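hey m, so remember when u said the tokens were messed up on ur end? i reran from scratch. heres the input so u can diff it against urs
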Amino acid sequence: MLFFHSILLGEEIFVRDGRWIHGAFTGEGRSLPNGRYLPSLRLEGMRYDLYLGDRLFVSFDKEMEETDIRRVIESVGGKVLAPIPRTHNAYFVQNPMPSLGLLYRITDHPQVVWAEPDLYRPVQWKGYQPDDPLFPNQWHLDNVGQTGIVGEDAKVATAWEYLIGRGLEPGRGVKVGIIDDGFDLAHRDLAGAFLQGIDLFEGDAVPMIGADDLHGTAVTGVLAARWNNGIGVAGACPGCLVVPVRVSSDIVNGTTEIDAFNYLLDRGVDIISNSWGPTDHGGPFDISAPLKEIFEYAATKERNGKGVVILFAAGNGNEDISDPKTLDGFAASPWVMAVGAVNASGVKTMYSDWGRDLDLVSPSCDVDLEDYDDPFDMEKIRDGIWTTDNTGFDGYAVGDYTPGFCGTSSATPLAAGIVGLLLAADPDLAREEVYEILTGTADKVSPRDAQYDENGFSLRYGHGRINALAAVTAACADGCDGAPPVEEEPIAPLEPEIDFVENMNTVTDADASLAPPAPAEAGCALIL
């Protein structure tokens, strides 16, 4: 009882990176659809509640065998579920009670390296002219004066022209993982863009949009909408293939994040684009210990040792991602490329997060100063990004496209698409080489505002605005042969049932044959 009394007083809860994380239970909670109750707690410095799940993440000494690990866990009242892939001998452990008692008992064992609770948290969603009729509106790819200042863009259209002139198809041979809230697998401008994915929310292999899912379709369009198909928009990497992973649009826990990244790494993706993160103005949030180890493994071991490129949206709160008081553990990770946003005049947007861990900025919309806390309000944004939207009435706008996608949520898939252009040109580039090319060729926009240091770095702009043409030119300086095509075939577009009153997009029984059985480990739908 003394341990629980100390928690209620706001003292030590668990250890992360050698220091105690403090907090307190709030006396409230919420229930999952399956009826399981999740007690809420507030960690020190945070402005919103987290929810205690029924799992722990526990790491043991590397030399400790699984049989001994199971014996130790069972001796304190827990149950080993499975090893956590790509970690240093860490395991999922079942916690039989919605409390921290088991965590306390496990932490005292001398062969435990670290132990953390699985916490649920609110998720916040952060040249060449193709014949796509809405392409002229896509100023972020080629700004010819549609808005802002002519030439203030990511130089994507001219990068396409450069690659095509060398006989290379922009994006061919590159697989990109996107973790988001759902994907319109029936969208005509995304036909041929999707490889088989997974739905970690519903626990199946069809990551189709649900009733509250607006974000993932727009993100995918910025990155990989098909081009030269006579309709809609073009993505920055129109030849890239997307492996979609659907998670909840409400709250997500550590287990789901671990499953999502491990699924994508198992699928052999080259890039992982993440337009989500902690709640803006919610206080500091660091990522779980197993996810840190997975990020390191992905960046140093995957792609035959060349490393997967992981990008995260810096966030939309105009705050420091690196400061301990406002830490964003995803964007600030040393294994992640953090992407901020600049507007159509090459100036940092009002909302874009910043800090010493910001790597690059990328074009996106802007808002007026008084509205910076809501960059998704369609009536207040300017310089909006044209992209795919959920078909019909179920998206940000009426129709199949939105003119107003916004935030670092849009800047990040644009940057990820440019990484796709690089890897399609030279698939042998290592992650560190990609980083050096992108940061070394970035445009030093707004120098008076940015105040770049002697190394060309700015707290507000990172290394500058991403420049696709300069990047692919640097990558091909000694020649580039291009990547071989992806052997896996894209999935066929789904056929939605159209109901203009209720649900615009519902997968029919006829589509079931498109989805193979979900992998056994990925079916844990532990989120709302």
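this time it looks ok to me. The mean pLDDT is 88. if urs says something different then somethings off w ur setup not the seq
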